[in-house]
TrEMBL record:
Coiled-coil region list: 525-613
Binding site for ATP: G341, P342, N343, A344, G345, G346, K347, S348
Complexes and interactors: Homodimer. Binds to stalled ribosomes, contacting rRNA.
Species this protein is from: Albibacterium profundi
Domain Smr per the UniProt entry, residue ranges: 712-787
Top-level taxon: Bacteria
Record key words, sorted: ATP-binding, Coiled coil, DNA-binding, Endonuclease, Hydrolase, Nuclease, Nucleotide-binding, RNA-binding, rRNA-binding
Enzyme class: hydrolase
SMART domains reported for this sequence: MUTSac, MUTSd, SMR
UniProt family annotation: Belongs to the DNA mismatch repair MutS family. MutS2 subfamily.
Protein name (database record): Endonuclease MutS2
Protein role: Acts as a ribosome collision sensor, splitting the ribosome into its 2 subunits. Detects stalled/collided 70S ribosomes which it binds and splits by an ATP-hydrolysis driven conformational change. Acts upstream of the ribosome quality control system (RQC), a ribosome-associated complex that mediates the extraction of incompletely synthesized nascent chains from stalled ribosomes and their subsequent degradation. Probably generates substrates for RQC. Endonuclease that is involved in the suppression of homologous recombination and thus may have a key role in the control of bacterial genetic diversity.
Length: 787
């Protein structure tokens, strides 16, 4: 229930419906929009929200839904019901086009079975009657006219008409030429009068040709004469036209009779097309206001995160401004929010935003909030907004407010959402404040939910001391003397009456006199609220600074942990490699010693032979010792710096220093990174760096330039995948100094094009965006030019 009847209009819900209607393709879709009302059945609301959410996903990320022809099939079906009635050729043609649209839509979803489950429910029990289209196509051609082959008799009539027309034209051309040669005709050729072909004859010559005069010119100098020779032939032609019309009517009656059993199916098809147009219009509006689907709950509560008033959002966007988002929660413990603060500070907009968004959700509309927002279901909407004085009912402004308060108290409950603007205003504050407090106390006992705006201090104090009520304030910048339009829950706000009056320019003596007239207690409360606001701002700024420092510290700690893990992993790998090398050296040495001993034994310990074998053994051991790890070190006077080229002594591999950490070096070996001790490398000059290393890098870059094509086709991709691919191509194009990049995204509904262009404008390297030439794709292709 919505009370009063104009509450939806005052919240802006009627204007929302008008914006949605502008997106409809048909009158039947607009009629459904007119019927939109808040619902209170959880399942029904959830179904409508999911349908709109899925259609929005189709418009943004999938191929366009083939909705090309939407005609009022129900109107035609109602006429078909009547025995003896028949539809025109054009009406049958519209039914055929509409049914082909229905079947195309069903095929579209069948190809995506299970992807759009909520939308599939629209036609899950719908019968496919292709016989209807087949019967119509047998009679009506693709231009909406009846086919000559619709019946044998009609085909014969068409043939006779064609013959009669040829004969009539042939004789008329001959008579015209004869009259022209004789100089009897006026300027011009054959013309039609009263549906008959005539010759324009000068009035003085009208007796020279026998025939029937159908008309004359305005001056009377020319008469339009049908010659007697073709008169009978033209009569025959007219009779044939009557025969053709009668046969067409007979065929249309027969076709209407054939379709009469399918009337229930036609009405079902009408319902599907209406719903598709309806859901599509809601989805387009959701895209326009950047709306999402919040989490729906069964209890009467709400938690809006970054909520924006949709109408305010659209107006601000046209003016290049942004809306300050609203964060608010209403639940079992925080049932009624009492909002106070300065005039023109956004209190009423805050309240209307909450009411309008809640009403939109329960009407099955997506809303501009963070998708993590939670929205419950309310059974009643009560609103007291604006001046409702009535001359007819003999009600003043305050009387009208009290009448609403009485209705609210009589009919509200825990599933009611109440919105009251300027609570208690309209009468003497000395009496209006206590009455408003008593009403608020009554509503709180009923556990109603809602938002109330006020300037009354007694209501702020009552909310502070009463369970279920919560103070909130619209923040005000004391220094700049202007509202910040931010809702802060937990404390009341000052009206800043004197501060605003001072800014406007009221004389100082007037303001001083006004301050002396207000009560001491009120003055203390107002000053206290102003001081609290100032201190709150300082605390908030300190928290923001502290949070920024904490984030920086956490980031540094994370980087340090990652680097430590990287170094530890490389240390393990190097130690493992060194052990393997040492084992190999030891194995080779043992093998050499064993071979030497065997050869000494074979030579029976000959001195000369033993001496020679010992020399060989010593030289091999020295060689193995020279390649053992940690034996050869960098000279002390060699200074290593980032960017220097070095050679790893163990393997002879060339590498470049990218970082120095204590006794370790982090080296770049091609695309690999490795940690090596300083004493395991030796510095080498750039000239000694392997030419093959530089040649390989140059070859790789040349191949990249040769293989890169600055054109990408993202048609059919979802938005996220398309942007990911474009980002990779954009980076390569900028790195390789290409002047431009061509992106083929297709036209469709223009959603993908808009998302891509908005994304590209964030790059400072992008100079401008242009469409392709109309002959080569137009706005289905975007050229990106770089600075």
């Amino acid at each position: 229930m919505i009370y009063p009847e104009n509450a939806a209009e005052k919240l802006g819900f009627v204007e929302i419906k008008e914006l949605i209607k502008a997106n409809c393709l048909s009158m039947m879709g607009k009629e459904m929009v007119d019927k939109i009302q808040p619902m209170h059945q959880y399942g029904q609301i959830d179904k409508f929200l999911r349908q709109t959410h899925e259609f929005k996903d189709i418009l943004e990320n999938d191929s366009p839904l083939p909705i090309d022809h939407l005609y009022p099939i129900r109107t035609f079906a109602d006429r078909i019901r009547v025995e003896g009635s028949f539809l025109s050729e054009e009406e049958f043609f519209q039914i055929s086009l509409s049914l082909k649209t229905v079947f195309s839509v069903i095929n579209y979803f069948n190809e995506r079975k299970g992807v759009y489950e909520a939308l599939e429910m629209l036609f899950e029990h719908l019968t496919i009657e292709r016989t209807i289209v087949k019967n119509i196509d047998n009679v009506i051609d693709q231009n909406g006219s009846m086919k000559p082959s619709a019946s044998p008799k009609l085909q014969e009539i068409f043939r006779e008409i064609a013959y009669a027309e040829r004969e009539s034209r042939k004789r008329m051309d001959a008579l015209l030429k004869k009259a022209q040669d004789a100089g009897w005709t006026a300027d011009g050729g054959l013309t039609v009068r009263d549906g008959r072909l005539c010759i324009p004859i000068l009035a003085e010559n009208k007796r020279k040709i026998k025939g029937y005069i159908h008309d004359e010119s305005a001056t009377g100098q020319t008469v339009y004469l049908e010659p007697e020779e073709v008169f009978q032939l033209n009569n025959q032609l007219r009779d044939l036209e009557f025969d053709k019309r009668r046969e067409k009517v007979r065929i249309l009656i027969a076709l209407t009779t054939e379709l009469r059993p399918f009337v229930p199916s036609l009405i079902s098809y009408h319902g599907l097309l209406s719903k598709l147009d309806f859901v599509r219009a809601k989805a387009l509006f959701a895209i326009d206001i950047e709306a999402t689907m919040p989490e729906l709950q069964k209890e009467a509560s709400l938690n809006f995160i970054n909520a924006r008033h949709p109408l305010l959002f659209l107006n601000f966007r046209r003016e290049g401004q942004t809306v300050v988002p609203l964060n608010v929660a209403i639940d079992e413990t925080q049932r009624i929010i009492v909002v106070s603060g300065p005039n023109a500070g956004g209190k009423s907009v805050c309240m209307k935003t909450i009411g309008l968004l809640q009403m939109m959700v329960q009407a099955g509309l997506l809303i501009p909030v963070d998708p993590n927002s939670k929205v419950g279901v309310f059974r009643n909407f009560f609103a007291d907004i604006g001046d409702d004085q009535s001359i007819e009912s003999d009600l003043s402004t305050y009387s009208a407010h009290l009448s609403k308060m009485r209705y609210f108290m009589e009919h509200s409950n825990s599933r009611s959402l109440i919105l009251i603007d300027e609570f208690g205003a309209g009468t003497d504050p000395q009496f209006g404040g206590p009455i408003a407090e008593a009403v608020l106390q009554n509503l709180n006992k009923k556990k109603v939910r809602g938002v109330i705006t006020t300037h009354y201090s007694n209501l702020k104090l009552f909310a502070n001391a009463t369970e279920g009520l919560e103070n909130a304030s619209m923040l005000f910048d004391n220094a700049a003397m202007q509202p910040r339009y931010i809702l802060e829950i937990g404390k009341p706000g000052s009206s800043y009456a004197f501060e605003i009056a001072y800014k406007i320019g009221l004389p100082q003596d007037v303001l001083q006199g006004a301050k002396q007239k207000i009560g001491t207690q009120q003055k203390k409360v107002d000053h206290l609220l102003v001081d609290l606001e100032r201190e709150k701002k300082e605390v908030h700024e300190a928290k923001v600074k502290l949070k920024r420092n904490e984030d920086k510290l956490n980031r540094l700690l994370k980087e340090n942990e990652e680097r430590s893990a990287f170094l530890e992993e490389n240390k393990k790998q190097m130690m493992k490699q060194a052990k393997l090398e040492a084992q190999e050296v030891l194995k080779n040495a043992n093998r050499l010693v064993e071979n030497t001993i065997a050869q000494i034994k074979e030579s029976n310990a000959d001195k000369e032979k033993t001496k020679e074998l010992r020399k060989v053994l010593d030289s091999e051991l020295v060689k193995n010792k020279s390649i053992a790890p940690n034996k050869k070190t960098v000279q002390k006077d060699e200074e290593l710096a980032i960017g220097d080229w070095v050679k790893i002594l163990d393997t002879g591999t060339m590498a470049q220093i990218i970082e120095i950490a204590k006794g370790n070096l982090i080296l770049a070996i091609g695309d690999l990174r490795s940690v090596v001790k300083k004493n395991r490398v030796e510095k080498t000059s750039n000239k000694e760096v392997s030419k093959s290393l530089k040649r390989a890098h140059g070859t790789q870059l040349t191949e990249s330039l040769a293989n890169f094509n600055p054109e990408i086709d993202v048609r059919g991709m979802r938005t996220e995948a398309a942007l990911y691919e474009i980002e990779k191509y954009l980076d390569k194009a900028i790195m390789m100094s290409f002047p431009s990049l061509k992106i083929v995204h297709g036209k469709g509904n223009g959603i993908l094009r808009k998302m891509i262009r908005d994304y590209l404008r964030k790059y400072k390297e992008v100079d401008r965006l242009e469409d392709e030439h109309l002959d080569r794709g137009g706005d289905g292709v975007t050229y990106v030019y770089f600075v």
